[in-house]
Design brief:
single chain; two-stranded antiparallel sheet; elongated; mainly alpha
C-alpha cells in the first residue's frame, strides 16, 4: 500500500471524528440557545417581581446564608447586592411577622421542607 493513500480504517476514523465534531457543534449551539432563553426568562421574572413587589429568597443551612432575588431587596428597600446577615435581617420584619416567619422556618427545618412567607 502506498503511504500517500489513506487506508479504509484511517478514513472511517476521520469520518467518525468529523461526525462527532458536528454533533458537539450542534450541542454547543443548543446550549447557547438555552442559555439565552434562560437569561431572557430571568430578566422577565426580575422585572415582573419588582413590578408586583414579589421576591424569592432562600436561607441555606447550616450557615444561614441568605440568597435574595432583586424583588426582595426592593421590598426591604435595600440596595441590590447589599450584604445579608440573617441575625440583622430578621429585625426588618414587624414583631408579628417575625414571629410567624420564625414558626414557619422552625417547622421547615424540623421537617426538611421549605415554606413560603
Amino acid at each position: 500500500m502506498d503511504k500517500a493513500e489513506p487506508d479504509a480504517t484511517s478514513s472511517s476514523k476521520d469520518d467518525e471524528i468529523a461526525r462527532l465534531r458536528a454533533q458537539l457543534a450542534e450541542r454547543d449551539a443548543e446550549i447557547l440557545r438555552q442559555e439565552a432563553e434562560i437569561a431572557h426568562a430571568r430578566s422577565i421574572f426580575r422585572e415582573a417581581s419588582i413590578t408586583a413587589r414579589l421576591g424569592v429568597w432562600q436561607c441555606e443551612l447550616p450557615e444561614h446564608t441568605l440568597i435574595w432575588s432583586d424583588g426582595v431587596y426592593e421590598i426591604f428597600e435595600l440596595p441590590k447586592g447589599a450584604p445579608l446577615h440573617r441575625h440583622e435581617i430578621v429585625h426588618l420584619y414587624s414583631p408579628k411577622a417575625r414571629a410567624e416567619m420564625e414558626l414557619l422556618r422552625a417547622e421547615a427545618i424540623r421537617t426538611g421542607t421549605g415554606f413560603s412567607y
